[in-house]
């Protein structure tokens, strides 16, 4: 089994993992492509790596259709209508705001504009000019500024602070346009992290979110970052925040999975020790996330986020059959942690998928035994 982690380490260093593995003398080793014992993800109907969608964690066809229309026509109105018809307190609204902002940011990066070229994301600028009181446009603009700060500037620099201060002002404007909408305040959580809000400031902001959407999983994930050791908290504070949220989570809420995200945020930078992923703290967090997944609504927009992180931990824990059961639900979309932390999310996901298939087959599994 240890050869799997050697292969993973090599892949993470930039080599390509050949997803053709077989069982031999109780272990797993590479075999050449085309070998009859080769473990091939394609045998399970999984999507080819080059066709994996890196934009979202799971399907949202309405969003994809609108994004395609907006980017093709550079007309914002379809985006405005979609957000207007999306419930304010829903996880879906937050995800769609992020997606529109991300699309505009990516367009701008690809086409920064010049003397004879219109800059990318022009539809968002027009949206703000033509419909300044549209709460959807205001929220997307605020999130766009936040993403621009993290993508184009270095935290702690004057450039970063200037963009974040602009984002903070945009959050305030968006909140005034939609008093019951938690999204502007959720956007501001990232500003709070970037500008190092004091704890009283942060907690005041957090209370505004709890007043509007107390069980919002996306908001809790964003707030968790602030309490992490790498930002303005500690491992203990992050665990405490996550466990408290899980303890008060209503039945069917994915907040029960929050401790797993806290564990992930505090993983050592390099840890290929098998025992760590089978330790009590990891096992308990994984079981909490599995419970949350089983109890959640099938259409919960945050379900895919939890499944993706579960896949990571289940593979590292060598729980192959459980990893495969998550794969059949999320394969095709990779726009989620942990894959998005890689420069090539699709390649990173493909490594773990190949390992899951190899481990599953090494322990007697096959496409015929995998329950959908």
- The H-and-E topology, N to C, reads as HEEHHHHHHHHHHHHHHH
**Spatial strand sequence of the major β-sheet:** 1-2
> Quick one: biggest sheet?
2 strands, antiparallel
Q: Termini distance?
A: 26 Å
Compute the CA-based radius of gyration: 21 Å
Shape: globular
Mean pLDDT: 88
The fraction of residues in strands falls at: under 5%
Structural class comes to mainly alpha
Tally the helices. Answer: 16
Q: Uncertain regions: pLDDT < 50 for 5+ in a row? A: 1-38
Helix content: 55-70%
Query: Can you count the beta strands?
Result: 2
Sum up the structure in keywords:
372 residues, mainly alpha, 2% strand, globular, disordered N terminus
Could you walk me through the main structural features you see in this protein, from its secondary elements to its overall organization?
- Helices cover 58% and strands 2% of the residues.
- The protein has 372 residues and is an all-alpha fold.
- Mean pLDDT is 88; it is low at 1-38.
Layout: helices, strands, pairs:
Layout: H1 2-12, E1 21-24, E2 27-30, H2 61-73, H3 77-84, H4 91-110, H5 122-130, H6 135-152, H7 158-177, H8 183-194, H9 199-212, H10 217-227, H11 235-247, H12 258-265, H13 280-295, H14 303-316, H15 320-330, H16 345-362
Antiparallel strand pairs: 1-2
Helix pairs in contact: 1-16, 2-3, 4-6, 5-6, 6-7, 6-8, 7-8, 8-9, 8-10, 10-11, 10-12, 11-12, 12-13, 13-14, 14-15, 15-16
Summarize the structure.
By secondary structure, the chain is mostly helical. It has 16 helices and two strands.
């Amino acid at each position: 089994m240890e050869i799997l982690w050697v292969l993973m380490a090599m892949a993470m260093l930039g080599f390509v993992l050949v997803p053709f593995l077989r069982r031999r003398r109780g272990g797993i080793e590479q075999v050449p492509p085309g070998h009859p014992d080769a473990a091939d993800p394609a045998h399970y109907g999984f999507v080819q790596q080059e066709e994996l969608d890196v934009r979202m964690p799971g399907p949202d066809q309405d969003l994809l259709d609108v994004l395609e229309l907006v980017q093709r026509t550079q007309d914002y109105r379809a985006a405005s209508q979609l957000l207007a018809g999306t419930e304010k307190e829903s996880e879906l609204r937050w995800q769609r705001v992020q997606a529109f902002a991300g699309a505009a940011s990516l367009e701008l990066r690809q086409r920064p504009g010049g003397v004879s070229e219109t800059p990318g994301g022009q539809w968002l600028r027009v949206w703000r000019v033509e419909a300044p009181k549209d709460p959807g446009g205001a929220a997307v603009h605020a999130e766009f500024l936040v993403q621009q700060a993290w993508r184009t500037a270095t935290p702690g620099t004057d450039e970063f602070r200037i963009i974040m201060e602009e984002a903070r002002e945009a959050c305030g404007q968006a909140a005034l346009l939609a008093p019951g909408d938690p999204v502007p305040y959720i956007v501001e959580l990232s500003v709070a992290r970037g500008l190092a809000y004091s704890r009283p400031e942060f907690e005041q902001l957090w209370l505004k979110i709890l007043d509007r959407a107390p069980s919002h999983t996306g908001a809790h994930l964003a707030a968790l970052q602030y309490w992490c050791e790498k930002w303005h908290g500690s491992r203990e504070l992050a665990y405490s925040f996550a466990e408290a949220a899980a303890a008060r989570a209503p039945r069917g809420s994915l907040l029960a999975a929050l401790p797993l995200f806290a564990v992930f945020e505090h993983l050592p930078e390099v840890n290929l020790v098998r025992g760590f992923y089978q330790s009590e703290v990891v096992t308990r967090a994984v079981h909490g996330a599995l419970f949350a997944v089983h109890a959640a609504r099938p259409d919960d927009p945050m379900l895919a986020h939890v499944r993706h992180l579960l896949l990571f931990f289940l593979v590292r824990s060598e729980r192959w059959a459980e990893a495969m059961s998550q794969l059949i639900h999320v394969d095709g979309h990779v726009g989620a942690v942990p894959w998005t932390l890689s420069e090539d999310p699709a390649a990173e996901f493909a490594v773990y998928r190949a390992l899951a298939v190899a481990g599953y087959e090494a322990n007697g599994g096959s496409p015929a035994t995998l329950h959908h």
